[in-house]
Write a structure and sequence with these properties.
Elements: E1 4-7, E2 11-12, H1 19-37, E3 42-49, H2 54-61, H3 67-84, E4 91-94, H4 98-113, E5 117-127, E6 132-134, E7 153-162, H5 168-177, E8 182-183, H6 185-198, E9 202-203, E10 205-207, E11 214-215, E12 218-223, H7 226-229, H8 232-235, H9 243-249, E13 254-258, H10 262-276, E14 284-287, E15 290-292, H11 307-314, H12 316-326, E16 333-335, H13 337-363, H14 376-391, H15 395-416, H16 418-423, H17 428-449, H18 454-463, H19 474-477
Parallel strand pairs: 1-3, 1-13, 2-3, 3-4, 8-14, 13-14, 15-16
Antiparallel strand pairs: 5-6, 5-7, 7-9, 10-12, 11-12
Helix pairs in contact: 6-10, 11-12, 12-15, 13-15, 13-17, 14-15, 15-17, 17-18
The structure holds zinc ion.
Function: Is required not only for elongation of protein synthesis but also for the initiation of all mRNA translation through initiator tRNA(fMet) aminoacylation.
GO cellular component, one term: cytoplasm
Family: Belongs to the class-I aminoacyl-tRNA synthetase family. MetG type 2A subfamily.
């Protein structure tokens, strides 16, 4: 039985969700909804990364003495945001949860048993804000962290190391045998070059300073970033706590990540899994970053838009539509309120919204409806492209295809001029076919839109009295004319009301 397991990165708990996080999470949500639509048991995971040492600092800065309390409050903010945005995640993992701790310990021990963990001297310039070591040449001319503009600490300590270098050949072989493991294709060369030229053993622990997961058997050290954070993908589906669930979901089918962490996910992560004797995920897909009105999203610029503010004006579905349509999946893009407002007007209010209200208004009070075949081929072809583009990780292209079919529908209305047929008593049969065909186009359209705009799709079904549509299988429902009972046409409020400036 096929299944689909998709993950987002776990988000740093001391950030606040901004539009960039929403974009990543909407993308994963759309893909997860698509897999549910085609009938695959689906697991969609997101969560928060909570063991970073800098959380102690952030808690203090926020005036909290109790770090756990601070983290609980911040993690709740993420969960509430995703709830308000209608994200359909099946689980939410927090890395301070017991199930995670147990899995991390088990994983460490498995890697240790493979002989891949050893003690070594680590020395480096460490920025606590970045949780990363810098080379002298990476710092600003004043010797500061380029991101945080603070002086990194010279850290020299004995740490545990992971023998990732041992897996170089195995990794290259895996990438060769699985050319779509690192995706999109544009990222693959970067990953291969990294493995070939820069794969060095990595330090995987730090001196314990009161926060983090202790190294099993050595409480003087805590497990550092990757050997803690990445393990969430395993622990959420039962690694270390529930073997049956784990066997059901692992390996993951898609890790959706930002392009800045694809190297870790395509080199370090598979090496860790090989060492622990676990199967490797099918794909790591890197989405691009976007700027806001051509500026990088940053705290100092104060342009880190809260997605919930946009949703107040435009609604969740319009924001989902805009982000997935406007930003090529896997590439970079730019966000601007003007373009969001523009797409809202042209594609949603005038496009989709108008198409739906036009047909509902024409059909209201008409008793006889017969589904004709005039739009059958158009929709049959649309479904083919729809599945093809989803399989190729091109959700933006899927939306283009759907809006193409809308155009065809509009053209059909203009050609058939049902308003004229309505006035002619001898054209009742012809009218029934035109309107029946158009109603069927709405039913098909709502199915097509479901992964992208779930609320809108449901409103369309509801206005036709087909609230139970989604209980059917797509295979059955996507057949042209597969209506189980006639529509009960009810006009509704506009799906995308015009916004007054
Ligand atoms: Zn920094």
């Amino acid at each position: 039985m096929r299944k689909f397991y998709i993950t987002t990165p776990i988000y740093y708990v001391n950030d606040r969700p901004h539009i960039g996080h929403a974009y990543a999470t909407f993308s994963a949500d759309t893909i997860a909804r698509y897999h549910r639509l085609i009938g695959e048991p689906t697991m969609f995971l997101t969560g928060t990364d909570e063991n970073a040492e800098k959380n102690v600092e952030s808690a203090t800065a926020a005036g909290e003495t109790d770090v756990q309390h601070y983290i609980d409050r911040m993690s709740a903010l993420w969960q509430v945001t995703w709830d308000e945005l209608g994200i359909s995640n099946d689980d939410f993992i927090r890395t301070t949860e017991e199930r995670h701790l147990r899995g991390v310990e088990k994983f460490w021990q498995a890697v240790e048993q493979s002989g891949d963990i050893y003690k070594g001297q680590y020395e480096g310039l460490y920025c606590i804000g970045c949780e990363a070591f810098y080379r002298e040449s990476d710092l600003t001319p004043e010797g500061l962290c380029p991101l945080h503009k603070r002086k990194p600490e010279l850290v020299k300590e004995e740490n545990y190391f992971f023998r990732v270098s041992k897996y170089k050949d195995a990794l290259l072989r895996y990438h060769n045998e699985h050319p779509t493991f690192a995706a999109p294709a544009s990222r693959r060369q970067e990953v291969l070059r990294y493995i070939t030229d820069h794969l060095e053993d990595v330090s995987i622990s730090r001196t314990a300073k009161g926060w983090g997961i202790p190294v099993p058997g050595d409480a003087s050290q805590v497990i550092y970033v990757w050997f803690d954070a990445l393990i969430n993908y395993l622990t959420a589906v039962g690694y270390g706590t529930d073997d049956e669930t784990f066997a059901k979901w692992w390996p993951a089918d898609m890790h959706l990540v930002g392009k800045d962490i694809i190297k870790f996910h395509c080199a370090l992560w598979p090496a860790m899994l090989l060492s622990a004797g676990l199967p490797l995920p099918a794909q790591v897909f890197a989405h691009g970053f976007f700027t806001i009105s051509e500026e990088k999203i940053s705290k100092s610029l104060g342009n880190a838009i809260d997605p919930r503010d946009l949703v107040e004006t435009y609604g969740v579905d319009a924001l989902r539509y805009f982000l997935l349509r406007e930003i090529p999946f896997g590439g970079d893009g730019d966000f601007s309120i003007e373009r969001l407002a523009g797409r809202y007007d042209s594609d949603l209010a005038s496009g989709l919204g108008n198409y739906v209200s036009r047909i509902l208004a024409l059909t209201k009070g008409v008793e006889m409806l017969t589904v004709g075949n005039d739009l059958k081929v158009v929709f049959d072809e649309t479904w083919k492209s729809y599945h093809r583009h989803f399989a190729a990780n091109e959700p933006g292209r899927v939306l283009e295809v759907i809006w193409q079919v809308l155009k065809e529908g509009d053209r059909y209305i203009d050609e058939c001029a049902p308003w004229a047929l309505k006035k002619d008593a001898e054209k009742t049969d012809e009218l029934a076919v035109v309107l029946g065909t158009l109603i069927e186009s709405l039913r098909q359209l709502a199915w097509l839109l479901t992964p992208f705009m779930p609320e809108t799709a449901m409103k369309i079904f509801t206005s036709l009295g087909w609230q139970d549509e989604l209980k059917r299988s797509l295979t059955e429902a996507s057949v042209w004319g597969a209506q189980t009972h006639g529509p009960v046409v009810a006009t509704t409020d506009p799906l995308f009301p015009r916004l007054t400036a």
